[in-house]
Amino acid sequence: MSTRLPNAGRLIDASKQIEFSFNGKRLKGYEGDTLASALLANDQMLVGRSFKYHRPRGIVASGAEEPNALMNMGEGGQFEPNQRATTTELFDGLAAKSQNHWPSLDFDVGAINTHLARFLPAGFYYKMFIHPRPFWKHVYEPIIRKSAGLGRAPKDRDQDRYEHFYTFVDVLVVGGGVAGLQAALAAGQSGANVLLIEQTADWGGRAQVDGGEVDGKPVADWIASTLKALDDLPNVTRRDRLMGAGVYDHGYALGYERVNDHTPSNAGPRHRLWRIRAKQIVTATGAIERPLSFAGNDIPGVMLASAVRDYAVNFGVSVGDRTVVVTNNDDAYLTAIAMKNAGLDVPAILDARASANGDLVQQAIDMGIRLEFGRAIAAVKGGKRVTGVKVCAQIGEGAVLSEIDCEVVAMSGGWSPVVHLWSHCGGKLNWDVEQQMFRPDATRPPTSHDGEAMVTVAGIANGYLDLNNVLQDADQAGKNAAKAAGSKPKTAKAPTASEATISPMEPVWLMPQGAPIKKRMKAWLDFQNDVKVSDVQLAAQEGYESVEHTKRYTTLGMATDQGKLSNINGLAVLSKALNADIPQVGTTTFRPPYTPISMGAIAGEARGKVFQPLRRTPIHDWNMANGADPEPVGQWHRPFAYVEQGETVHEAVNREVLNTRQNLGLLDASTLGKIIVKGPDAGKFLDMMYTNMMSSLKPGKCRYGLVCTENGFLMDDGVVARIDDDTYLCHTTTGGADRIHAHMEEWLQTEWWDWKVYTANVTEQFAQIAVVGPNARKVLEKLGGMDVSKEALPFMTWADGIIGGFDCRAYRISFSGELSYEIAVPASQGQAFWDALIEAGQEFGVMPYGTETLHILRAEKGFIMIGDESDGTVIPQDLNLQWAISKKKEDFLGKRAQLRSHMADPDRWKLVGLETLDGSVLPDGAYVVADGTNANGQRNMIGRVTSTYYSATLDRGIAMGLVLHGPDRMGEVLDIPKTDGTIIKTRIVDPVIYDKDGEKQNV
Amino acid sequence: MSNSVSALNGENVKGFVQVSELGLQGMITLRANLSTPKVKKAIKDVTGVLVPKMRQILHDGDNSIGWMSPDELLILCPHSGAEAMVTALNDALGKTHALVINVSDARAMFAVKGADARDAMAKLAPTDFGMGFQPGEIRRSRLAQVAGAFWMVDQETFNVVCFRSVARYMFDVLAVSAEKGGEVGYF
User: Fold this and answer.
1) Does the N-terminal or the C-terminal CB of chain B have fewer CB atoms within 10 Å?
2) Choosing among B24, B80, B95, B164, which should be mutated to test the A contact, i.e. which has the most A CBs within 10 A?
């Protein structure tokens, strides 16, 4: 059984016991444990079930590469699936549950799949679920959806918060092992601004476990003194629990900081996403040990050799009393030595090589460990945990020579440098035949904007496996990066480490090399996605030659671990099956992030009340406190209607319409765009911007105008007021304010840069209130101040003055057909002015009205609305707005386009009013149909409804629409089908229904 | 006028740094050819402040001028004096082609104050808040999802300007960034 060793474990504090739970069972661990080490200390070998066959699975690794120990972590608002036990630091009260099993981890019905494995080979899903076709949607997909996935999807709202952090550095060093420390030191000593990040809470990397000597002293001492030297440099910052997640264009990198994962009850963000702009990036990301492919290599108790010694040295955890080491390289001997040093038994080292004579091999011999060369594992004994191994010759087909009882199999198939970050942005790799690994090719680096390298690799990640070479390489990498970032490196030499004799490793991609199909079907490549040697071979046999295709066909490397353990083994098997060299087959693409990062970290602070900016007018709070039913318009929330108690929204709208027509309505029109255009060429400029003539407008007057794109389509509309000879104020729609301002600036900056015109968007400087209705003048006169009579302030004029003590600008404009003023006051006084109008208006029946009433009032008058009557394909001529298009002007934006044949086509749908024969309200967006069908078998269409409302004024539905030859067909009755199949008979009428002569607005 | 109120009426909150809305603040947008002697003189005569260089903000008494673009300045002055200053600038500029406009009420202004103010700001704006950023420099950028401009008043204080309509969002997002427990300890 796996258990805790006495007086061992460099990372744990045995005086601080903490409690956690696994599948509801209460267990104990120590401060400093990972969830994985604590589970092993409690003899919890079985930690999950595999994805496809529901095989029992145990912990394989000790770090980010772990494929099996994925947990449903936490509860309620802190629940998160697929959390790796090996990178989860233990905390008091941690609650983890294993995944992918039913009814329980120990007894799982889904495990039947393992007996059906023969019928579930690679590509099974593609072959099976294609026939018969309709089955996919109704049978297969629902079943697969139920059985798919490892962890549960979270149901509750995430209760934690997240944030981003921007930083700019000269040199970013990723990885806090020996290489990262030395690279950071070398760069830091040059004076460069350095950020060193490490994904775990422990500095020094593998050297802390694997040992060695630097400058004649234990490597741990060197790590401690180097950390101090780094901390003494003011230009170097080091941060732990911060993973280099991705490298992007131009030295941009993402870091993923797990701020409070280990202290979930602390205040502050759970994760912080670092958005780093670095002149140079050094990746000192180490390497990942490869598993060996032998039958039963997925049984709990079979682990990476490095992980077995990590658990013993770092956490004082013995995975089992007897460890059999199986390897093709010297490095795994460290595990045998570490086990012996811990007082545990190593029955044998099975070395697939014919011979080896490195220092570590000699040391094992000296310790009296039994060595067997040329040996392999024929099979692993045991079900839910290892009980022993059957030994065979590596060169044979698996005939069992002997059996060894053991609890642990420590395997090592060699090491793969972590080249992910190097590759994210285009760094290329070479295949190193001697070491059987892909290494970064320094001559083909990821390049920045200037074509120069922006990433340097250091240490083991660069393919240097021994300590001395790591130090020399990292020192050079740090200096090179600092130099490339513009600093001058010191000439100090790198520290040196004792050099060891290492015997060459031997490629072993299958164990034994002639393993028959039965064994290959039990030799796992991808533990998480259940891909075996036989699956990859089948893919090759079925013609999948590209590694990218094989990946997708077999799902090799497509799980949450992205093939950290499986990719190299998988493509080696593929290359053998294709009889090609490994570099010819190549790797799949490395994409960020390095390991999965939380969605919360990506979203950052954007949640809850700061999910999105909400724009507020000066009267916003009053609106919301007075029953406003909010309607999103751009990022504003405008009142759709002010709903009073006991009223529906529809009833509120009808009340507001009638009151505004009969008494007095107030509209918060502050959101309307207001753009100042000033300069000697302002008139000339606006003549280009608008379809009609603006330069002829007299100061003090207002004119309605249309803005078109250069393609002739209607873009925006609004009233322009001429302030003085050089100055105009252009009103835009609410949504158009920023767009039209940008449109003006673009033309001024790119085409007419020599015109003397300046613009400024002053939308938010003013609170603008529309005072509308027969009593509009009365309330303004009651407040007192400027003369607002018909004579002093006629229709379509404006004037500055004072009303009720407020400095204001009053516009006599009307979008409702009623007597109407729009009064602009400084925004800081907007609420006070609104309050004054409400108070003074009581005797005149004042009521605020919302956007729906605004829409209905304008529709009754036949006024168009940008976004209803226009949709980016409509030109002013479609809307019978020829009167607003100047024929005198030589040019304006859109003029030429509107002369094109299609734009001048008399068959374009044109605006008309629509009146249902039964008085009902037409559905919005409904189509007008004609007889027959088009080439696609669809009903012929001859028009569509653009605006439709219930008019309380007329007590019936009113609508506008675009209809083929509409204006020529007045009085004709059209068919407008509804989605329920019935048809509404609708007559074509004049769009202006209310006060056609405009007498009411001109009083 | 006595019934004038700023967007958030001086609201403030204390996290690991203090976030305060600064109340009414006079602001003027001036657009002109900033390299001409006449424009430079007019600005200096009226405000007492020189025309700033790129990314510079200069102060004199109650007045400050921040560089916004090659042909645009942001003039800060007491709220009650903004209209008068617009008039004075227009008079001083005479017939020179320029646009001077009061935008005091189109904006909101905040202070982010405390020893770790740089950390709080670096959560929101993609700007280098290292020691290279010092009083005297102004940046136009974004803070989270809205446009903003900011400068340092002293080593512990940033002033932030944004549009009035998003003042609430700006305050909330600054407050979230300043929440205790969120200290970064970086700068």
Assistant:
1) N
2) B164
CB distance B165–A615 less than 8 Å?
A: yes
Q: What is the CATH number of domain A162-287+417-484?
A: 3.50.50.60
Superfamily for A291-413?
A: FAD/NAD(P)-binding domain (3.50.50.60)
**Domain formed by A517-585, architecture:** Orthogonal Bundle (1.10)
Residues A180 and A289: beta-carbon distance below 8 Å? no
Residue from the list A678, A758, A832 with its beta carbon closest to the beta carbon of B3: A832
Q: What is the pTM of this model?
A: 0.94
Across the interface, whether the CB atoms of A760 and B166 are under 8 A apart is answered no
Which residues, at least 6 apart from A980, have a Cβ–Cβ distance to it below 8 Å? none
The pLDDT value recorded for residue A147 is 65
Name the residue in chain A with its Cα closest to that of B173. A610
Please give, rounded to a whole number of angstroms, the shortest distance from the CA of A270 to a CA of chain B.
Answer: 9
The span from the CA of A728 to the CA of A720, in Å, is: 7
Classify the complex by whether its ipTM is higher than 0.95, answering yes or no: yes
Nearest to A237 among B106, B127, B186 (CB): B186
Nearest to A829 among B1, B122, B167 (CB): B1
| B64 at A interface, C-beta within 8 A | no
A616 touches chain B (CB under 8 A): yes
Terminal-to-terminal C-alpha distance of chain B: 42
Q: Specify whether domain B26-105 bears CATH 3.30.70.1520.
A: yes
Q: What pLDDT does residue A148 have?
A: 63
Q: Report which of residues A53 and B163 the model is more confident about.
A: B163
Contacts of residue A275 in chain B, CB cutoff 8 Å? Answer: 126
The answer to whether A615 contacts chain B (CB < 8 Å) is: yes
CATH of domain A3-111: 3.10.20.440
Instruction: Check CB contact under 8 Å for B98 and A758.
Output: yes
Average pLDDT of adjacent 10-residue blocks, chain A of 1003 residues: 91 96 96 98 94 90 96 94 96 93 78 74 74 77 69 91 98 98 98 98 97 95 98 98 98 98 95 98 98 97 98 97 98 97 97 96 97 98 96 97 98 97 97 96 96 97 96 98 96 91 95 96 94 94 91 91 93 94 90 96 96 97 98 96 97 98 98 98 98 97 97 97 98 96 98 98 98 98 97 97 98 96 98 98 98 98 96 97 94 96 96 97 96 94 97 97 97 96 96 92 87
Q: Do A618 and B177 touch (CB under 8 A)?
A: no
CATH code given to domain A662-893: 3.30.1360.120
Asked whether the beta carbons of residue A806 and residue B122 sit closer than 8 angstroms, the reply is no
B residues 68-97 closer than 8 Å to A (CB) = 71, 79, 97
Secondary structure in 3-state letters for A450-461: CCCECEEECHHH
| Superfamily (CATH) of domain A906-1003 | Aminomethyltransferase beta-barrel domains (2.40.30.110)
At residue A525, φ and ψ (nearest 5 deg) are: -100, -55
Domain coordinates of chain A in residue numbers?
3-111, 162-287+417-484, 291-413, 517-585, 662-893, 906-1003
pLDDT of residue A123: 75
Question: What CATH code would you report for B12-22+106-177?
Answer: 3.30.1360.120
In A842-950, alpha helices (H):
851-860, 895-898
User: B105–A161: do the CB atoms touch at under 8 Å?
Assistant: no
* pLDDT of A112: 75
Confidence at residue B2, expressed as pLDDT on a 0 to 100 scale = 61
Distance CA A157, CA B14 (A): 27
Which regions of B33-137 does DSSP assign to beta strands (E)? 57-60, 63-69, 72-77, 98-102, 107-113
Contact A613 B1 (CB under 8 A): no
DSSP line for A417-466: E--HHHHHTT--EEEETTTTEEEE-TTS--B-TTSSB-EEE-GGGGT--S
Q: Map out the domains of chain B as residue ranges.
A: 12-22+106-177, 26-105
Nearest Cα to A90, choosing from A42, A36, A167, A169?
A: A36
**By the CB < 8 Å criterion, does A632 face chain B?**
no
Q: Which of chain A's residues have a Cβ under 8 Å away from the Cβ of B119?
A: 165
Q: Do B122 and A167 touch (CB under 8 A)?
A: yes
Q: Do the domains A291-413 and A162-287+417-484 match in fold?
A: yes
Contact yes or no for B90/B45 (Cβ under 8 A): no
